[in-house]
Design goal:
two-stranded antiparallel sheet, mainly alpha, Cytochrome Bc1 Complex, Chain D, domain 2, 4 strands, 2 domains
Length: 331
């Protein structure tokens, strides 16, 4: 009898937790099935000749050279800030831990807390355009450009089974620091390791023809906005830890995790385009611990959500564990 009561209580606690966090069935499958599958970027030169090949290759070119087609001097339309999708998704979205697209085909459509809806690949692409490339309006989902980019991104991960997120997909999650990320330390890291490419003022380096960036701006008017994923410092820190300095030899010393957190804090403390999507996170309890804007479902200040320490916030979001023995003792 007591065992039955304890099991019922535990199940109820878990169900309430799942409802509060709006975890979908797809999220559970993805979270539990991503440890062993090894993904390798497919060879674009092996696509059979034909309309599909042309669409996919055009999609890759749009990802790698977005500004040429859609930047301030775009040959198709002038709608973005001059950055390329490839500036955030390295090697046209095929680099291991380089914010690659390996898990997009296998996990979309999927529920996302940010919108509170089930999103398709077109929504994901338009989020990137409006949040990172600062487009003022979404791309027409029926346009040839949108169709090409979607075809390419789906092709990158087409060999990944459904609901599998391969090791090395997207951005690596770093262990939280026990302290707040330090912008002063981050400034030093930036000056030593980053400014030679991105400039003393984060302005980046334009290509000779002015139709895009050789090294993208990390802040300022032409950088990603405050609504971009990289404005969460866990995303920026994981990205730079695995991939920067970009010009470093293969065997060179990489940034430490502390350096990555600190430089992420410094870069994201600098001015950039402000963009607000009022419908983001309809369930505020679903916000990531490092989402930098309130309101929140907890009592931690906005500054801690932006710079940490994050472990206390994470701990506060975990469900209360009710032991069987405590139930027995209360009878």
């Amino acid at each position: 009898m007591l065992l039955t009561i304890s099991m019922i209580v535990i199940v109820v606690v878990l169900l309430v937790t799942i409802q509060n966090k709006s975890i979908s069935k797809g999220d559970v499958l993805i979270a539990s099935a991503n440890k062993d599958f090894v993904w390798h970027p497919p060879d674009i030169n092996k696509i059979p000749a034909g309309p599909e090949e042309r669409l996919i290759k055009y999609g890759r070119d749009l990802i790698a050279n977005t500004s040429f087609y859609l930047g301030p001097k775009g040959t198709v339309a002038a709608i973005t800030n001059g950055m390329n999708c490839q500036n955030c998704h390295l090697d046209a979205g095929t680099k291991y831990w380089g914010n690659n697209y390996s898990a997009v085909f296998s996990t979309y459509p999927r529920f996302r807390e940010r919108s509170g809806t089930v999103e398709n690949i077109y929504k994901r692409l338009n989020d990137c355009f409006q949040r990172s490339l600062n487009a003022q309006a979404p791309l027409d989902t029926n346009s040839y450009e949108m169709q090409a980019m979607a075809a390419y991104i789906n092709w990158v991960g087409h060999e990944v089974p459904k609901n599998i997120k391969p090791v090395g997909a997207a951005i690596k999650d770093l262990v939280f620091l026990e302290r707040s990320a330090n912008t002063t330390n981050g400034r030093t890291v930036y000056m030593v390791h980053c400014q030679r490419c991105h400039g003393a003022n984060g302005e980046g380096v334009l290509k000779g023809d002015g139709a895009g960036y050789l090294y993208p701006p990390l802040w300022g008017n032409n950088s990603y906005t405050t609504a971009a994923g990289l404005f969460r410092i866990s995303r920026f820190a994981g990205y730079v830890k695995e991939n920067m300095p970009f010009d470093a030899p293969h065997n060179a010393r990489r940034l430490t995790e502390e350096e990555a957190w600190d430089v992420a804090a410094f870069v994201n403390s600098q001015p950039r385009p402000q963009k607000v999507f009022k419908n983001d996170y309809p369930n505020i309890a679903g916000k990531p611990v490092d989402h930098p804007f309130g309101p929140y479902a907890d009592n931690f200040p906005e500054s801690q959500h932006k710079y940490g320490p994050f472990e206390p916030i994470k701990h506060s979001q975990q469900p209360t564990v009710i032991s069987q023995q405590s139930i027995v003792n209360s009878q």
